[in-house]
Design a protein that fits this description.
Elements lengths: L1 H17 L3 E2 L5 H5 L6 H14 L16 H7 L3 E2 L3 H11 L4
Parallel strand pairs: 1-2
Length: 99
């Protein structure tokens, strides 16, 4: 019984890494593909949309991407997050100065 309890606790502790939210403003195609309902085509569409239109300001902004509607959003649930777009832009400017 003690071994079962220890195993259960360990599984619980390590499962947090599996269910970490993916930031749709910074995720790579591979990271996006780990999300339920997002395959290679949708992951590529998210990145192309982000490159063309800038960072997402909210999770709901993901519905602006072709192929992502209410059904996909329901599948994603709490598995996505959005970083502050201004923070991401500031970080990019500091690490890649253009002047």
């Amino acid at each position: 019984m003690k071994k079962l309890l220890i195993l259960t606790v360990l599984i619980f502790l390590f499962s947090g890494q599996v269910y970490a939210a993916v930031d749709i403003n910074t995720a790579t195609q591979t990271e996006l593909e780990t999300l339920q309902g997002i395959g290679p085509a949708k992951a590529k569409a998210i990145i192309e949309y982000r490159e063309k239109n800038g960072s997402f300001t909210s999770i709901e902004g993901l519905t602006s991407v072709d192929g992502i509607g209410p059904g996909t959003m329901k599948q994603l649930g709490n598995s996505i997050t959005v970083s502050n777009p201004q923070t991401a832009e500031t970080t990019a400017a500091v690490t890649n100065p253009q002047e």
